[in-house]
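Mods, move this if it's the wrong board.
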Amino acid sequence: MDITPQKSKLRFPLINMGLLRKNKHFFFLAMGLIMALIIGSIDYYTNDEFKNSFLGGVLVEAHGMLLDIILFGVLLTIYEKFSEKHNEIERLKEEIDDYRGWKEPEAMYRIVGCIKRLNKKGIKQINLNECFLEGANLVGMDLGGTNLHAANLKGANLEGANLTGANLMGANLTRTFLLEVNLSGAILFEANLTEANLTGANLTGANLQWGKLMGVHLFTTKINGAYFSGAQIDSLETLEIINRNSHCSHLEAYFDKIIGCYRIE
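Not the wrong board. Structure tokens:
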């Protein structure tokens, strides 16, 4: 697979302030004007005749212009910071796109790095559709609403992560560490949770229909209002755990001879 990074898209235009900082002539000229205004201000406030003179009027206008320059500088700085943040976020998203579908450990490490940097910038809804994240360390990540459709998270560590409302449809979560993960309202339709550790996790209102739950750890897992219709389990004991943790006992299962395991009705 060709993983050559694509050319970046057109970004916000930025004024190169570095050139202005490096221009010593501009710097000394600006400092000279400021000093002249300061010295002139002393005469303006101590000499009544100077106030009424032509130079006094010029000084008043100069003060106004200086304030305009300061205000413009503040606004320009804010704009630069916003533009830099926006461009960096777009660059990280593009980098994830570049490595999407590449099933190698290097791709996983690079994508994880992008996820962490995006999280630091306050971005949690990330498109990780079909991304290779096998064995990834995503402990404590905020991925609420993230698209993880068909992503490979086999053996990944997401302990304490926030996956509220995330789309994990068809995702591979085999032997994934999901301790105390918030999966409330998440879509886990047809997800593979074989031997996944969901101890202390919150699955309130989650959709686990037609998922694979063989050997899954559901101790102290909150599953009130979760949907399990069609899900595969390896024993009726798992069904008892589901019923106990959901504070109800209405779910039943039958042994499906075709797939060789129980399926929740």
